[in-house]
Amino acid sequence: MDHSPGTWQTAAPLAEQTAPMVDPFGRSVTYLRVSVTDRCDFRCTYCMAENMTFLPKKDLLTLEELDRLCSAFIAKGVRKLRLTGGEPLVRKNIMFLIRGLSRHLGGGLDELTLTTNGSQLAKHAAELADCGVRRINVSLDTLDPAKFKSITRWGEFDKVIEGIKAAQAAGIHVKLNAVALKDFNEAEIPDLMTFAHAEGMDLTLIETMPMGETGEDRTDQYLPLSLVRSRLEERFTLNEIPYKTGGPARYVEVAETGGRLGFITPLTHNFCESCNRVRLTCTGTLYMCLGQDDAADLRTALRASDDNAYLSAAIDEAITRKPKGHDFIIDRDHRKPAVGRHMSVTGG
Ligand code: SAM
Ligand code: SF4
Questions:
Q1: What would the pLDDT profile of 101-127 be if each residue is shown by its tens digit?
Q2: Distance of CA 245 to the CA centre of its chain
Q3: Closest C-alpha among 16, 27, 103 to residue 320
């Protein structure tokens, strides 16, 4: 398959609009997150076990199939597309897919973005900007290189910082994501926030979600953001603002820094009532909820026919099964994940 730049523009048509997707609770589905690979060059302790077994490469959708699937969703009303993983930038020829999908920007698609660990960002930043990527999320849980190594197991702090700088230099707006972890970055959160804001980045804090076996005890890592927030309020003035990025974060503006701070609180505050998202894996499985196991196999529909009508019907059927919400709980007795699959399968 020729993955050289420019081949999509002639090969792949723009999405033809079909009926929009509305779930049984009246929520329009306008946001698709796509895990383009379950593989990663880090092994963050809250996300994966060190000796993870990944999917056989033969089970993955090709980049052309991923493009066709994403385009079908755009035709059905998806306006925001986020590529994630695993680490999206370690998927071979990923820029081929990103360049291809960028043809929808200014058409059906308002935003093409990604969530990355930043390790490969320096290499790809300029091309991402050229493809119309305007904002990205970079995950960074600490500013201490030694702690960064201990939490990611395999990551290089300096490379991530280099990647963030390259993205900013290319004109991409970077938002930092940090998972709040008890006894790990608890005390560092004010510093992370002031660093982010001084560098022109928003910071979003995430509660650990009980997904997949990691070999670590989740109850030892869990830090409620309600607690983080009340501690921050002892030092900073947090003003509620209606700012929205299409995702589940609730934002405040920090008076002292002038920057924005987001909270993603699946455990202390259920964020499902306004959920507009569905998640596609790299094997073509659609999860209608991050915190539930029910899923739809779109790969069979995709491969059954070149006619998108079949695929479109399979997507419609899946949307009728979008649940009202997740039921994450930290199981204090059994210490088992609430959802068996890892975050890297559906990409957070
Ligand atoms: N590798 C990329 C990265 O780290 O940004 C994209 C995929 S990663 C699964 C997406 C986000 O999910 C990251 O911000 C990561 O910190 C977060 N994450 C991973 N496992 C999590 C868990 N169990 N609970 C909460 N957030 C988690
Ligand atoms: Fe990789 Fe992201 Fe999971 Fe860390 S959080 S192991 S970078 S997929």
A1: 999 999 999 999 999 999 999 999 999
A2: 13
A3: 27
Q: Structural domain boundaries of the chain?
A: 31-346
Pairing relationship of beta strands 285-287 and 238-240 according to DSSP bridges: unpaired
Nearest ligand to the CA of 211 is 1
Q: Are strands 250-254 and 238-240 parallel, antiparallel or unpaired?
A: antiparallel
Residue 106: how many other CB atoms lie within 10 Å: 9
What average pLDDT does the chain have? Answer: 89
Nearest-atom number in ligand 1 for the CA of 211 is 23
Q: At what angle do helices 225-235 and 189-198 cross, to 10 degrees?
A: 70
- Domain range 31-346, its CATH number among 3.30.1330.30, 3.90.1860.10, 3.20.20.70, 3.90.1150.10: 3.20.20.70
Structure tokens at 111: 């935003």
CB of 208 closer than 6 angstroms to any ligand 1 atom: yes
- The alpha carbon of 179 and the centre of ligand 1 are apart by a number of angstroms equal to 8
Distance CA 152, CA 260 (A): 25
Cα of 139 from ligand 2 centre, angstroms: 8
Q: Which residue out of 179, 203, 264 has the highest number of ligand 1 atoms within 8 Å of its CB and is therefore the one to mutate?
A: 179
Q: How far is the CA of 221 from the centre of ligand 1 (A)?
A: 14
Q: Whose CA is closest to 256, among 227, 231, 235? A: 235
Distance (Å, whole) CA 122 – CA 280? 26
Q: With 70 as the cut, is the pLDDT of residue 331 above it?
A: no
Give the DSSP H/E element, type plus range, for residue 64. helix 63-75
Does residue 31's CB lie within 6 angstroms of at least one atom of ligand 1? no
The residue to mutate among 82, 121, 280, 343, having the most atoms of ligand 1 within 8 angstroms of its beta carbon, is: 343
In this structure, of 270-274, 282-286, 336-340, the range with the lowest mean pLDDT score is 336-340
Name the residue type at position 334.
H
Please indicate whether residue 40, judged by its CB atom, sits closer than 6 Å to ligand 1: yes
Considering every ligand atom shown, identify the ligand nearest to the alpha carbon of residue 40 and give its number: 2
Ligand closest to Cα of 83 equals 1
